[in-house]
Amino acid sequence: MNYIGVDGCKVGWFYVSLDDSNNWETGIFPDIKFFIEKFHGECLILVDIPIGLRHKGNLERICDTEARTILGERKMSAFPVPCRKAVYKSRYEEASLINDELTGRKLSQQSWFISNKIKQVDDLLTNSFAPQKLREVHPEICFWGLNERKSMKYYKKTPEGFNERLDVIRNIYKECDELVEEVLSKYKRYEVGKDDVLDALVGAVTAKFGFNSLKTIPIAPEYDEKGLPMEMVYYTNKPY
Q1: Cα separation, 230 vs 201, whole angstroms
Q2: I need a labelling partner for 186 at 20 to 30 A (CA). Which of 15, 100, 124, 239 fits?
């Protein structure tokens, strides 16, 4: 069984894969579709990208609004998600216009920056790949869940934020220091950022340790017009 965390990076998708024997593997794919070829057996892939998109209307996905409430000072990391038609446009101006027409909100540059990756995942799930094998996570929600439902104090791109998040992972996955050291020596920073490493790793750790007990935001997820769940999954040992 493979437990995989995936995060978008500057050159594509960076992943961390853990297994039941405490082995790990890392790598970069240019397109999410290559995960089908590599991980076609028993696996759970948790990806930091929106899954399940609004068709129209000014109501945001409930998982996004709930995530902002939960994250407090870290709420800016849960930004509004484009509608489906917007992510399939090839130019920012056109995408922003169609998003405004259908939802009443223009598209932020931050949302546009990940639109191609949203499209890759949407294409994959609506055409070939099993949705139950590929589910959405938000790294800050994962850290919140592993940290007794307390959000991170520091911004993730600061040294304090990096160490704070690594401490949270270390509490559940002791091998994290060796893995992170290996990854940071293997890849250039223009390929994979330090925060990309932690985001993918916390996804893999969430998949491995929460495999049979993942929780969702919201508790009862919505489904979009394609039948995809609009949810964020996380794991916590802290009871409700």
Answers
A1: 22
A2: 124
Q: How far is CA 197 from CA 34, 41, 72, 82, in A?
A: 19, 24, 23, 25
Q: Residue 130 is which amino acid? A: A
CA pair distance 214, 224, nearest whole angstrom: 21
How many CB atoms within 10 Å of residue 71?
A: 19
Structure tokens at 232: 């964020």
- What does residue 2 show for φ and ψ, rounded to 5 degrees? -110, 135
Tokens 């704070």 found at? 164
Q: Is 177 helix (H, G, I), strand (E, B) or coil?
A: helix
Tracing tokens 């949810």 back to the chain, one arrives at: 231
> Are 204 and 48 a contacting pair, CB within 8 Å?
no
Q: Tens place of pLDDT for every residue, the chain, 240 residues?
A: 999 999 999 999 999 999 999 899 999 999 998 887 888 788 999 999 999 999 999 999 999 999 999 999 888 888 889 999 999 999 999 999 999 999 999 999 989 999 999 999 999 998 877 778 899 999 999 999 999 999 999 999 999 999 999 999 999 999 999 999 999 999 999 999 999 999 999 999 999 999 999 999 999 999 999 999 999 999 997 766
Given CA atoms 88, 232, 79, 62 in this order, what sign does their dihedral have?
A: positive
Q: What is the total residue count of the chain?
A: 240
At residue 200, what is the residue type? A
Domains of the chain, by residue range, sit at 1-53+60-79+134-240
